[in-house]
Design brief:
Radius of gyration: 30 Å
Number of helices: 28
Oligomer: single chain
Shape: globular
Strand order of the largest sheet: 3-4-6-5
Largest sheet: 4 strands, mixed
Helix content: 55-70%
């Protein structure tokens, strides 16, 4: 009996089976193989590609759901009915019964289409384990704790100083360095991007094009829309002025208290762009914050679907009336979605890949968000909910224990970032929490009814804001219209339906998280129990826009996939998509730049015109000490004209009982007052018989004001 040694395949040399798998995986590979039979160069390229493919195994790809190859007429009909349903809910029609009936039919067709494998959401990315040797750089980690404690105690003066800021930043740097996982080089290079260069160029061009459209919607007419500031902006300008004078507050107590991020950001914008302490600096600053949110919207789309879903999410979010308006007002509103998006992106990706670095990044953005806008304080609760949902869907005790440590990393990192405000909170709990408590409890105003009734009513209205009524706050919304345009609104309802169905069938925790995160993220609006008229509010619910628009983008990707199964229908798929996106962009443009602009001008006071008059007086006379504005109920904030005139730190108010005190002020003198204030007019004419009265013809209908001049 002879012992035969089996044939040994040389290392890295492909077998016949490997060759067969490689050339039959798609049509392009097959045709390249056929050409290689008579083309030596092609044959050499094929061999090199096959060796590379064996040496570098591909990252597991998500298994896309089966899709029927017939024309998806049920899906198409469902989309059409949903669009008509949402269109019937537009303010000019407001047909609630018709819209509800049509949506019921649309949902029925969506379920039918899903059952027949026509309409599915894009597959969720697969789970993977990032290599982690569980080591920590102990000395930097321990040093971070020491530095954080030193910074904490040094922040006791309620001010940022050079010393406590350096201690704080060093503690963060040491913490991140101590815990950061260095990915092995082999792991970094194991899955290179292998798509053709042409495809990568097209993808990058598409991303740039969509980002450019979003930039247009964010920045177009920033100087004139909105046209006028209101009292909240006056408070912000004064806070920024305080910083410019060396008063580096951690928390600003004006107007029931505000976190510091926007104030320092505005001062930076004012200095970089040379716009000064102005309304434009506020608007430009928040518009830029809205732009900074966009990359994370794209990444979230990829994390819950694919690159195409990310592009759809980027487009719909970038043109959205909801996000465009709150980014233009010049207040802290866009800070909620800005920090919610990366916090959730790194958290979800971290739980999927178990990458320690993602949890560190999630914690950093979570802590930064707490310095931004008070409604963000709901996000730490959502992070805990995400971990609970994740753990309940995992049976492995090892996974559950690991998730506890991951939660500790997120929470611990966010606390390090939160240290300055944490110190202030401990020292001044009433001031820090007053704004939230004034809405949640009877601190400022008695509750108008039982708590549970107000809450349920607010929650009901809050959930309807996306497709029905976004509230009555005219300064940051177009009142009593859906928060979403009719295309995104229809896609959102379809996306929610498909999410529920997929979760029921697949029990993936990420689907449940998306569903639960929406009511959680609108809670800052819903919990306005003392002032239920302030709910729904686009600003306090703006974090939910991240998830709501993402769900709509996933639904859009699903219909494109359904239509693209047959190569002959690809043009139909993208043609339909193009029409939908154009309709969405057109409506959002009209809402913001026409409807909102006109409605805002009707409600705003013409402080810019008063500022112009004051500026002209200053140019002629070299001073403004003898200029006053007489307050009148529900008229202008007398601090705002000074902002327009380049005097951001002066309130020009002069009450009638103090008129006599102006007699000692040298002329010329100027008094500005409301055109219906006859008492002021008579008092000034009695005090200054030689004075002259003029009426300023405002460009705002019905908002003329009177100017009383004293020349001698």
């Amino acid at each position: 009996m002879t012992n035969e040694t089996p044939h040994q395949t040389p290392e890295n040399e492909p077998s016949v089976l490997d060759l067969y798998k490689s050339v039959t995986k798609d049509w392009t590979s097959f045709f390249n193989f056929i050409r290689s039979l008579w083309d030596a160069r092609r044959r050499a390229e094929l061999n090199r590609a096959l060796v590379d493919e064996m040496a570098q195994p591909e990252e597991p790809q998500p298994e896309e759901p089966a899709r029927a190859d017939h024309f998806p007429w049920r899906s198409t009909l469902a989309l059409f009915i949903a669009l008509v349903a949402q269109f019937s809910l537009e303010p000019q029609y407001h047909q609630a019964s018709l819209g509800l009936a049509l949506y019921i039919f649309a949902i029925g067709f969506v379920l039918w289409a899903h059952h027949n494998d026509e309409w599915h959401l894009p597959a969720l990315p697969v789970f993977k384990q990032t290599p982690d040797d569980l080591t920590t750089r102990l000395i930097p980690f321990l040093l971070s704790i020491v530095l954080a404690l030193a910074a904490f105690f040094d922040f006791g003066g309620d001010k940022f100083t050079l010393r406590n800021v350096i201690l704080w930043i060093l503690s963060l740097a040491c913490l991140v360095y101590g815990l950061w996982l260095k990915t092995p080089k082999a792991a970094q290079e194991s899955n290179p991007e292998t798509r053709p260069r042409r495809e990568k160029i097209i993808r990058n061009l598409l991303i740039l094009a969509v980002f450019g459209i979003a930039l247009f919607f964010r920045l177009y007419r920033t100087d004139s829309l909105p046209s006028e500031p209101f009292s909240d902006q006056a408070e912000k300008i004064l806070d920024v002025y305080d910083i410019s004078q060396g008063d580096y507050n951690i928390f600003f107590t004006r107007n029931t208290g505000r976190e510091a991020f926007q104030m320092y950001w505005t001062l930076l914008v004012a200095n970089v762009f040379g716009t000064g302490l102005s309304f434009l600096s506020l608007k430009l600053g928040t518009a830029l914050l809205g732009i900074l949110t966009l990359p994370f919207i794209y990444l979230l789309g990829k994390e819950f679907g694919n690159e195409r879903a990310g592009l759809f999410a980027l487009f719909l979010f970038g043109i959205s009336y909801w996000n465009n308006v709150i980014s233009r007002i010049g207040l802290r509103f866009p800070l909620y979605p800005l920090f919610a998006a990366p916090t959730l992106f790194y958290l979800i990706r971290g739980l999927r890949t178990r990458n320690r670095n993602d949890f560190l990044l999630s914690g950093l953005f979570l802590g930064l968000g707490l310095h931004g806008y008070s409604p963000f304080r709901i996000v730490p609760i959502l992070v805990v909910i995400a971990f609970i949902i994740y753990v309940l869907h995992k049976r492995s005790s090892e996974t559950r224990q690991q998730s506890l440590w991951q939660l500790i990393i997120v929470a611990g990192t966010s606390i390090f970032v939160f240290i300055p405000l944490l110190r202030y909170w401990i020292s001044h709990p009433d001031t820090f929490g007053y704004r939230a408590l004034s809405r949640l409890s009877a601190v400022e105003s008695p509750l108008p009814g039982p708590v549970w009734q107000i809450f349920l009513s607010n929650l009901y209205k809050g959930l309807l804001m996306f497709n029905w009524d976004d509230g009555e706050i005219w300064v940051n919304s177009m009142p009593h219209r859906p928060a979403l345009d009719f295309v995104t609104g229809a896609l959102f309802i379809i996306g929610i339906t498909l999410l529920i169905v997929r979760y029921v069938r697949g029990r993936d925790w990420r689907d449940l998280f998306l569903l639960i995160s929406i009511p959680v993220l609108i809670l800052p609006s819903v919990l306005s129990l003392a002032f239920p008229g302030e709910n729904p509010a686009l600003n306090r619910a703006s974090g939910a826009a991240v998830i709501v628009i993402l769900v709509g983008a996933l639904a859009l990707d699903g219909i494109v996939s359904a239509l693209s199964v047959d190569k002959k229908r690809v043009y139909v798929a993208y043609g339909l998509t193009g029409v939908l996106l154009i309709l969405s962009a057109y409506q959002n443009y009209n809402i913001v730049f026409n409807q909102f602009d006109a409605n805002f001008k009707m409600g705003a006071w013409n402080t810019s015109e008063m500022g112009k008059v004051i500026h002209q007086f200053a140019e002629k006379n070299g001073q403004t000490d003898s200029v006053w504005i007489v307050p009148f109920p529900h008229w202008v904030d007398t601090r705002l004209p000074g902002v327009w005139a380049g005097i951001p730190n002066r309130d020009f108010a002069l009450w009638p009982e103090n008129f006599a005190g102006t007699l000692d002020v040298p002329a010329p003198k100027m008094f500005i007052f409301w055109n219906a204030d006859l008492e002021t007019q008579n008092a000034l004419m009695l005090l200054y018989p030689t004075g002259t009265l003029n009426r300023y013809a405002s460009s705002y209908p019905g908002k003329d004001f009177l100017i009383f001049m004293v020349e001698k």
